[in-house]
Amino acid sequence: MGNVLFQVDSIVSVIIGAAWLAFPEWLLHRQVLVHLNESHEFCARFMGTDFLTSYVVSNHALHWTKSTDRLVAIDARFIICVLTLIAQIWSQYAYSDHWNASHWIGISLISTWTMITVLLRLHATTQIRPVKEKAKLH
């Protein structure tokens, strides 16, 4: 189960990262009602790079032998997802005049990704607990 969730996380990070790198103007113009300049495109591409490069950590975490080491990758993904989700929700309310209805699509996608990360964290935690108990017995 854990490997499947890690692989889903890796695939999602590649898809979302590549989309923000390749089509930042198209993605942004579909969400906002204001004129965007090059700085918006730069920030969107930077976010895409962040998601795309985080694939490396998720992918390599599959090969780490200690389950506790995998928690580092999971916690890092969780922080990225939660901060992105908070920023999107805050901007939706703070600048409600500038966003159109399709902005909620992005919020629902990052919410789904955050939930996958939470499931992965819960699964990893339940896998670590029996290992620690066995270590105490020996």
From TrEMBL:
<feature type="transmembrane region" description="Helical">
    <location>
        <begin position="6"/>
        <end position="23"/>
    </location>
</feature>
<keyword id="KW-0472">Membrane</keyword>
<keyword id="KW-0812">Transmembrane</keyword>
<feature type="transmembrane region" description="Helical">
    <location>
        <begin position="76"/>
        <end position="95"/>
    </location>
</feature>
<keyword id="KW-1133">Transmembrane helix</keyword>
<protein>
    <submittedName>
        <fullName>Uncharacterized protein</fullName>
    </submittedName>
</protein>
<feature type="transmembrane region" description="Helical">
    <location>
        <begin position="101"/>
        <end position="122"/>
    </location>
</feature>
